[in-house]
Amino acid sequence: MLAHWIAARDIPAGGSTYILDDAGTWLGPVAEFGMQLRMRQPLCATVFVSARENGFLVRGSLRGSVFVPCSRCTEDSTIDIEQDFESFEPFPGTPEEGKEDPEVLDSMRDESVVRMSAGGPEIDLAALAWQELVLALPVKPLCDPECKGLCARCGASLNQGSCGCVQEDTDPRLAALRGLRVHR
Predict the structure, then answer these.
(1) pLDDT per residue over 32-68, tens digit each?
(2) Which positions of the chain have pLDDT values less than 70?
(3) For residues 54 and 96, what is the distance between their CA atoms, to the nearest angstrom?
């Protein structure tokens, strides 16, 4: 994954704005995580970072457009990304309220976008922008709200019309009861 580390000492007192529009910021993790995502319009993250006493204050936006497979029919689904975000990223070893447990702190360090280096704390803006992209993607993307999906028998797209498979009106879970005869 492409990293874009910014040291706290390099951020002016009033904060600074960074633009992340390099395709490698997005395409590297897409390949690394095996995601089926293609760019429709380039993604661009605008991130304002301010170093505080015990962490980084981050505000930003993510804009662009991507293609992902529809969760019903696997055709391309266009997702327009317009994500605003704001977070506080604590320095490693800085307990947050309610998170003083050492095990919780260790797990936070593993997933954090902040690290301590010889020159002091640093934040990875590329990892932060990637997290925001993942959060902006829908759980079940659809090519169309009326997408009919695929036939469970032959796999044909039902958006193109009927596939010709014989559709049973009965619940397949009750198939064992089909031959049952009730006598009065």
Answers:
(1) 999 999 999 999 999 999 999 999 999 999 999 999 9
(2) 1, 94-111, 168
(3) 10
Residue 143 near residue 70 (C-beta atoms within 8 A): yes
| Every domain of the chain and the residues it spans | 5-136
Give the DSSP letter of residue 88: E
Q: What pTM, to 2 d.p., does this model score?
A: 0.78
Q: How much is the pLDDT for 174?
A: 81
Question: In angstroms, rounded to a whole number, what is the distance separating the alpha carbons of residues 21 and 65?
Answer: 13
Helix (H), strand (E) at residue 25: helix 23-32
Q: Are 178 and 171 in contact (CB under 8 A)?
A: no
Which residues, at least 6 apart from 119, have a Cβ–Cβ distance to it below 8 Å? 7, 9
Tokens of 178: 């089909």
Q: Extract the tokens encoding 156.
A: 């044909």
CB atoms within 10 A of CB 7: 13
pLDDT score for 92: 87
- For residues 79-105, one letter each, b for 16 or more C-beta atoms within 10 angstroms of the residue's C-beta and e for the rest, the string is bebebebeeebbbeeeeeeeeeeeeeb
CA proximity to 112, closest of 11, 3, 15: 3
Q: Find the Cα–Cα–Cα–Cα dihedral 52, 56, 61, 64, rounded to 10°.
A: 150
